[in-house]
Amino acid sequence: MSATGTINAGYLENLLAGQPQLPTSPLAWLNALRAEAVDRVGALTVPTLRDEEWRFTDISLLTKMSFHPVRTTISLQAADIEHFYIEEATTRLVFVDGVYAPQLSSGIAGSGVTVVNLEAGFTAHAATIEPYLGRLTEFRGNVFAALNTAFLHDAALIVVPRDISVTVPVHLLFIATQKDVVSYPRCLLLAESGSAVTVIEDYVSLQEDAYFTNAVAEIALLDNARVNHIRVQREGAKAFHIANCAVSLAHASNYQSVSVAFGARISRYNLNVQLAEEAECAVDGLALISGRQLADTHTCIDHAKPHAVSHQMHKCIVGGGAHAVFNGKIMVRQGAQRTDSRQSSRNLLLTNKAHVDTKPQLEIFADDVKCTHGATIGQLDSEEVFYLQSRGLSDTAARNMLTYAFGAEIIERIPISSLKCQLEQTVLEQTATQL
Amino acid sequence: MIYPDSKIVLEVRGLCATVNGTEILKGLDLTVRRGEVHAIMGPNGSGKSTFSKILAGHSAYEVTGGSVMFEGQNLFDLAPEERARAGVFLAFQYPIEIPGVINSQFLRLTYNTVQTHRGKEELDPLEFDDYVREKMKLLEMSPDFLERSVNEGFSGGEKKRNEILQMAMLDPRLAILDETDSGLDIDALRIVANGVNQLANKDNAIVLVTHYQRLLNYIVPDYVHVMEAGRIIKTGGKELALELESRGYDWVGVEHKAVAGAVA
Ligand SMILES: Nc1ncnc2c1ncn2[C@@H]1O[C@H](COP(=O)(O)OP(=O)(O)OP(=O)(O)O)[C@@H](O)[C@H]1O
Ligand SMILES: [Mg+2]
Question: What is the DSSP string of A411-429?
Fold first, then answer.
């Protein structure tokens, strides 16, 4: 025990090395939050296969590498990153290796909607954000969220005031440019009563060496708010990506999320959604991986109150010797009557070496509920392949078409057409090279 | 229609086949020439769909004997997609649903693939759209079906129409229609049959598998074959279908045994 304990401790100490250099915030509570997070990192260890929540996901590779916070930021020109832009999403915050890049960003400040780097939001919103920042995420028991919180400095802050509908989607673009660097992307989205907004959280890379993204997003929907959250993880092939997202839905609010994972050597996404009365969420995901990639999605949908609806469809397309993990917990608490929850996990294995671990987990403590869940793991249906062949398509073209269709069902749910096309193209290319 | 000196499209000799070790086809003979319409009738389980799917190249069936020549080449040398490109088309008895594959995309990809292999021009999405809509009119199909997943949630009759739409697009040399009439309402039967008639010409051939004489009122066969226990045991003209309709199949079997006995 002590052996792994020491390795872990040394490893975490290393990661914390740059933390004291963070500039002090003018907000006392924020400094206190960071200090508490540093303490928590000291008390926690890096999870191993022995932890129930990590039993399918071996991150020992991550602990063998040493990453440091970014020392000098690379200055990028718009031309370097334009290919990542999403046509419809002209409101954009760009973070390069975790550091806010004002010259590449086009946020919104002033009265009305706020889309800024955290610091710029302090004057107007310090009191508004205090109950949410670092409070929605359970960083006290989660070493990665604690690390992120310890380094909390630059962060995307979105505040949508009461009854305002933001028509232009907001693009949060996190770009990795340097090897051996660990970055701590952070987002806070506050959708006030009756407001509506669409946010794209996008992780990309301009280089192919190893780096580590440790991200945290916090999303609060107040009464009747609507949030569309699209998450795109297209990190470099050798990257490590660990992310925590906490979403809290107040009365009759509506959260729609689609998350896709294409990149990273090892990725882990924890999504926790908590529903109040009459809240609704649709949480969909697609992992498309090959080679030696590992993509793990852990979700927890917490029906804390009655009359809430949750729909979840998670799909994995696994090629090469890749490994996908899905753990979908649905919690229906005592008194959460009339809960309507539907979960489905569908997995497509493209090779004999591809591997999937899927675990639906229902914990129901109310009696008047409608909860369904199902999981399938399979290869392409040979009758479907034959049907397409009988119409002239080669075996490969038929398989590509079916694989693409399998993934497209999730991508189709993204409400931004240029992003949808971009990602559909990625799926097409990926499936064509894998088969 | 029977044309003198017409070329042979399909020549099946002594075809035997098994599925999971069970013998289904037991020496099937059939010759189809260009321009002809053949009807194959016969009791449930006699092997009609098995025969159809073997022609299309389904891998569940093992051919254990006999030969099939298509347009002068050994059909079994061709992969399923090569058969389709060469002009074999099977309208399935039970067309499967393919969730997520959009009908229009599927039709365009198959059409362009087959055209390319035949040395013809592909159509771009706009040209294709015009082309497919025109074919759909022939079958009185709503363009709405283009935007849906292939056969997903289609009614029985809609699936059958979608099969014939594909036939119209792919312009086969040999079309095998496996019970395309079952599940069609009276109007749909007439529409689909009209569609098939318009596609029939002196260069292609049609094999209709059916249980009912009714279809043959619309698509008039040159030959009617009776299949039983994996063989064709009787061949006649279109009047044979009428006789089967009124008398059933038993007498054909009895007659066949008597003839076979006399020969032996
Ligand atoms: N995959 C299979 N496994 C086992 N038996 C099979 C399989 N496919 C076909 N058969 C059997 O082969 C026989 C012939 O079936 P086939 O579908 O060819 O009959 P059919 O003449 O088309 O009948 P119908 O008129 O009912 O459509 C049947 O007894 C059927 O059960
Ligand atoms: Mg049949």
Answer: HTT-S-HHHHHHHHHHHHH
ipTM of the prediction greater than 0.90, yes or no = yes
Half-sphere exposure of A203 (CA within 13 A, CB side): 34
Please report, for residues A259, A317, A346, the alpha-carbon distance to residue A430 in angstroms, rounded to integers and kept in the order given. 17, 10, 19
Interface test with B, best of A390, A400, A412, A424 (most B CBs within 10 A): A390
Domain end call among A224, A255, A276: A276
pLDDT band for position A20 (cuts 50, 70, 90): confident
Residue identifier of the C-alpha nearest atom 19 of ligand 1: B45
Distance CA A179, CA A208 (A): 8
What residue owns the CA closest to ligand 1's atom 5?
B19
Give residue limits of the domains in chain B: 8-263
* Rounded distance from Cα A408 to ligand 2 centre (Å): 33
Q: Are B32 and B200 in contact, with CB atoms under 8 Å apart? A: no
pLDDT of residue A1: 39
Q: Are residues B106 and A388, on separate chains, in Cβ contact within 8 Å? A: yes
Q: Is residue A304 part of a domain?
A: no
- Residue A386 with chain B: CB contacts under 8 Å: 57-59, 80
pTM: 0.87
Instruction: Give B119 to chain A, closest Cα distance, Å.
Output: 14
Is residue A247 included in any domain, yes or no? yes
Task: Looking at the structure, tell me whether residues A77 and A198 fall in a common domain.
Answer: yes
Tokens describing residue A88: 């419809």
Tally of domains within chain A:
2
Task: Note the CATH number of domain B8-263.
Answer: 3.40.50.300
pLDDT at A206 over 80: yes
Which residue stretches of chain B have pLDDT < 50? none
Residue A7: its pLDDT value, please?
55
What pLDDT was estimated at residue A5? 47
Stretch A103-128: mean pLDDT? 92
> A358 in a domain, yes or no?
no
Domain region containing A397: 382-435
Q: Indicate whether A351 belongs to any domain.
A: no
